[in-house]
Amino acid sequence: MTAVFDRDALSEALGQTGQGDRAAFRRVYEATSAKLMGVCLRILSDRQLAEDVMQEIYLTVWNKAASFDPGRASPITWLVTIARNRSIDRLRSGAIARNSVPVDAAYDLADGAPSALDHIELADDAGRLGVCLDELDEKVSRVIRTAFFEGVTYEVLAQREETPLGTMKSWIRRGLLKLRSCLEQ
Amino acid sequence: MTASNDDDRIARAGEYALRVLSPAEEAAARAEAARDPVFGAEVDRWNDQLSHMADGIAPVQPSASLWPRILAATGGAANDNAVTFWRRWAIGSTGLLAASLAAVAIMIATPAPAPDPATTPVAGSITRVATLKLDNGVTALTLAYDSATGELYLAPTREMEGDTRIPHLWLVLPNEGGVQLVGAIDGHDTSRHNLEGVIVGQATEAIAVAVSMEEPGHTPNPDRPDGPVVAEGEFQPL
To answer: How many Cβ atoms are within 10 Å of A116's Cβ, its own excluded?
Structure first.
């Protein structure tokens, strides 16, 4: 069973992991592995592949925890960003047969297992992001969400939407600027 | 800095964090983030903001074998209560009896390619069997052990073919006794081994067996693997 961690405790455990503390590393794993597994599985849609990437992720955490700076990022952001980027790297590293999952089904792959992170997510921030995404043009919001959840490039998005590449870039760049403006209101 | 320049930097950092750029564009943005702290901070900001999209993804518990793999890969199995993890990982593989019995029955009824009668176990003398499976549930190796004679019979499937690493067989001992290296095995063809000394008793008592993949020329310490554990299975009496 996972321990309940708050943001400071997770930051502290990451700091200790960076100093080679394996007990702290285990605490980080137990508090975050279900969350990161959900992220990997969402992008890769294959449990075996997701677990292979999870091994890489936690090796990265073990090796890079010393570089984690709580002043620059929250521990959850740092870990989720590593998980997402590693999953996308794997997705693009070879010809992985992958069926596109509609963004509307983004949450269907998860099994709802409890996570210690449930206690420390900043619900207000997530809610605010959702509100701001919903304020964008529907198609722009959709492609930004697709890019995040599926790790696909401009080129793939343009093909899927049957839209010129330049138009797709314009949609997303303008959408990101509007998103930033909304988030900082 | 003009508003237009600011907007351009914000948008470029955002599309880099979102991972929509082409490989060449992404490499350029990565280099820029490394050399320009202002751009790098903008990327961090986007990562922070965009990561909240993942908040809605429900957690999924990884399999119990993942942590031992991670721990082994960091070289820390011996220092972090490895026994608990190995036991948890071994105990998680229940329900293998039927598969083990079926596999051995088939193995005996239809011996592996080019069977050598001298190396094919006799049904009556086999006392313990195990089917070692990969994480995806595919069988990698079937094992039979005769505790009376110390004879160990291994029948790998084709799953380990093509791997340049060397498979090593491990016993998982009862009562938090840790793990014990049996030795390197042939991952391609059936083989027979005659265990001698204390390991005969350890193989009789072991609760499970596992295979780790080690780099060529490297022999791990007898109490922990250095390479990833790729297959495992419970010992069952026949």
So the answer is: 22
**How many structural domains comprise chain B?**
2
B122: Cα within 13 Å, side-chain hemisphere: 6
Residues B7, B88, single domain; the answer is: no
B46-63: per-residue pLDDT in tens?
999 999 999 889 899 998
Dist. CA A146–CA A125, nearest whole Å: 20
Same domain, B17 and B130: no
Is B61 a member of any domain?
no
Question: Percent of chain A scored above 70 by pLDDT?
Answer: 79
Contact residues on chain A for B11, CB-CB shorter than 8 A:
173, 176-177
When pLDDT is averaged across residues A26-45 and rounded to a whole number, the result is 94
- At B122 the pLDDT is 41
Q: Cβ of A129 and B79 within 8 Å?
A: no
Closest CB from B48, B58, B228 relative to A107: B58
Domain residue limits at A160: 122-185
Of residues A158 and A70, the one with the higher pLDDT is A158
Transcribe A50-116 into DSSP letters. Answer: HHHHHHHHHHHHHHHGGG--TTTS-HHHHHHHHHHHHHHHHHHHTT-------GGGTTTT------G
Q: In this structure, what token pair is assigned to residue B139?
A: 């069988």
Q: Give the residue numbers spanning the domain of B192.
A: 66-237
ipTM of this complex prediction, to 2 decimal places: 0.84
pLDDT digits (tens, 9 = 90+) for A115-130: 444 444 445 666 788 8
Same domain for A36 and A102? yes
- Choose from B55, B88, B213 for mutation: most chain A CBs within 10 A: B55
DSSP assignment letter at B156: E
State which residues of chain B have pLDDT below 50. Answer: 77-125
- A94 and A18 within one domain: yes
- In this structure, the answer to whether residues A91 and A2 fall within a common structural domain is yes
Q: Does residue A111 sit in the same domain as residue A128?
A: no
The torsion angles phi and psi of B134, rounded to 5 degrees, stand at -75, 170
